[in-house]
Automatic annotation (TrEMBL):
KOW domain span: 79-106, 131-158, 255-282
Gene3D superfamilies (alphabetical): 2.30.30.30
PANTHER family reported in the protein's UniProt record: SUPPRESSOR OF TY 5, TRANSCRIPTION ELONGATION FACTOR SPT5
Gene Ontology CC terms, in alphabetical order: DSIF complex; ribosome
GO-annotated biological processes: regulation of DNA-templated transcription elongation; regulation of transcription by RNA polymerase II; transcription elongation by RNA polymerase II; translation
Domain of life: Eukaryota
UniProt GO molecular function: mRNA binding; structural constituent of ribosome
InterPro entries: KOW, KOW_Spt5_1, KOW_Spt5_2, KOW_Spt5_3, KOW_Spt5_4, KOWx_Spt5, Rib_uL2_dom2, Ribosomal_uL24_CS
Protein's UniProt name: KOW domain-containing protein
């Protein structure tokens, strides 16, 4: 093949490119001018491999702040929670380890691992990254490997090497994309009409959420708020899926719907907090990613919980209370 290649300086950028049939190439990449209006940047989660492809020779992926900033800019609200192990990635206290004590908007208060420092220190959330150690069992919650579970076998700065529960292969992910979890992916998420995390009605009229799918059966966390009760059920023992959208009242008569965040204030799970995944007969199934049992699900009575951000006033049953909550959420 006789392909003519010219080295030419681009008048707009001032950089040199190899020109082939009017196309600009550099370091194996094709460069094309595009309108900024045609580029979508919100909610993009680049994989580790994608970021690695674009790093320049000599760049350290762990210390490359442009790579970290790309990840941090797409963090979801509530990324850090109390109890998370974190490490400082910017500033004078870089590499300081600690645990999250509380989160206020973009400010994260941590308890440092070093005893000589103050009891708590405040950081902007972009100065922190999650921290894990070999042996931790984790779940990937964002990026191309989302849903994968496995054990951390190596920590390389802000990059984790995980042994997948399903494929038994090593995968590389950013620590920022991971949470500690006891959930184990089996590779099976569905049998018949039912899949993982469905709310189901059993043939004895009890109900619960599917927390694990095995080869020929389901593990179901039943709707018993006083104590966690997990049963193994066959497909034929499930009567139907419960799809109804419903709501319930919390301790202060605030209306709670699915995806609302609640805190348990009474009972065995007191102090736990998370979004409501299912509601049935006044029972809430709450997902708390810090709860290492039952795939993170907690069962509690709605009256034993409070809506985070809801009213705590004494005018119980007042219709205005529910309207106020809706308005605040909408804003």
């Amino acid at each position: 093949m006789h392909i003519r290649v010219e080295r030419r300086r681009d008048k707009d950028s001032g950089e040199y490119f190899e020109m082939v049939d009017g196309l600009m190439f550099k370091d194996g990449f094709l460069y094309k001018p595009v309108s900024i209006k045609s580029i979508h940047t919100q909610g993009i989660q680049p994989s580790f491999d994608e970021l690695e492809k674009f790093k320049k020779p000599g760049d350290d992926m762990n210390g490359d702040m442009s790579s970290l900033n790309t990840l941090f800019s797409n963090r979801k609200k509530g990324h850090f929670m109390k109890g998370d192990a974190v490490i400082v990635v910017k500033g004078d206290l870089k590499n300081l380890e600690g645990w999250v004590e509380k989160v206020e908007d973009t400010t994260v208060h941590i308890r440092p691992k070093i005893s000589d420092l103050p009891k708590t220190l405040a950081f902007n959330e972009k100065e922190l990254c999650k921290y894990f150690k070999p042996g931790d069992h984790v779940k990937v919650v964002s990026g191309v490997q989302e849903g994968t579970t496995g054990m951390v076998v190596k920590v390389d700065g802000h990059v984790l090497i995980i042994l997948s529960d399903t494929t038994k292969e090593h995968i590389r992910v950013f620590a920022d994309h991971v949470v500690e979890s006891s959930e184990i992916t089996t590779g099976i998420t569905r049998i018949g009409d039912y899949e993982l995390h469905d709310l189901v009605l059993l043939d004895n009229l009890s109900f619960g959420v599917i927390i694990r799918v095995e080869t020929e059966a389901f593990q179901v966390l039943k709707g018993v708020p006083d104590r966690p009760e997990v049963v193994l059920v066959k497909l034929r023992e499930i009567k139907s899926k419960i799809d109804r959208r419903t709501s319930a009242k919390d301790k202060f008569n605030n209306m709670v719907a699915t995806k609302d965040v609640v805190r348990v204030v009474e009972g065995a799970c007191k102090g736990t907090q998370g979004p409501v995944e299912h509601i049935h007969k006044g029972i809430l199934f709450i997902y708390d990613r810090h709860h290492l049992e039952h795939a993170g699900f907690i069962c509690a009575k709605a009256q034993s919980c409070i809506l985070v951000g809801g009213s705590t006033g004494g005018r119980r049953g007042n219709v205005c209370t529910g309207v106020l909550v809706l308005l605040v959420k909408k804003i």
